[in-house]
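Sat 14:20. Reprocessing the chain from the morning session after the first attempt stalled halfway. Input below, unchanged.
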Amino acid sequence: MTVTITAFDRSPDGGKGLARDTRVRWALEEAGQPYAVRLVSFAAMKAPAHLALHPFGQIPTYEEGGLVLFETGAIVLHIAGRHAGLLPGDADARARAIAWMFAAVNTVEPPILELSTALFQEGKQPWAQDRLPLVKDRIRARLRQLSDRLGDAEWLDGAFSAGDLMMISVLLRCRPSGLLDEHPNLAAYVARGEERPAYRRAFADQLAVNTRPAD
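Finished this time. Tokens:
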């Protein structure tokens, strides 16, 4: 069955790989699975047809036969569970990789997203500049903890896994702030992920969508 995912017709980041469909593209590339992409506009994301796939009107969605999924963590976990290459064979190592997936989206990503909100949605509020240092400190605390855990290892727990895919995808959203560079081991960790051929293919495909001539 052909997998179909949805992605922004024009991503707010202009194709820098920060939109969440990149995570799903990357997982499918790592698993060696072909897929189709259906592009949706911001207006279409709020229309009934898309809301039937994603109740919160976001991207990406994942369709495979009669199966429809939303939320990147759930989608990547499904791909990793169905195809080789993203989860270890050992049961304990597999469980740890899944734990890192949850840590990426539940523990590390929320303060990073909070910074985006503080800068772009709340930036004109009179209290915005006072709040920014607090938000950045929360990110720094998580990055420090993650940096200490990673140390000089190549990946989070042995071989590359879906846990690394999700964590690197989250950390990429932090890089524009400069906070990631405060931890050279994390910056190098992200760079290793970007060097993977599967990531390069995923990035190139979503970049091509966002740099094509306007209709």
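Residues 1 and 65 are 6 Å apart (CA to CA).
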